[in-house]
Design a protein that fits this description.
Elements lengths: L2 H10 L7 E6 L4 E6 L2 H9 L5 E3 L2 E6 L2 E6 L2
Length: about 70
């Protein structure tokens, strides 16, 4: 998928991008990273993202989107 297509995909997601402090767009996936916020986590879970605990962060992947929520 081209970068422009990835940007369009990101814009069409129902995700509040203000949740994240880092947004990386790669050819094969989109990486979103932010701090853990319980309301944001619930919002993302309602969109179908299932989080797994991985050391000091939560991680979810779905449809070419990877989300990391750091636990502080």
């Amino acid at each position: 998928m081209a970068q422009k297509d990835q940007i369009t995909k990101l814009q069409n997601l129902d995700i509040d991008l203000d949740i994240f402090y880092a947004i990386r767009i790669y050819k094969d996936f989109i990486h979103l990273q932010g701090n853990l916020d319980i309301l944001a986590k619930r919002h993302l879970e309602n969109l179908g993202y299932e989080f797994q605990l991985n050391d000091d962060f939560l991680e979810a992947r779905k449809d070419g989107v990877e989300i990391i929520l750091s636990i502080h």
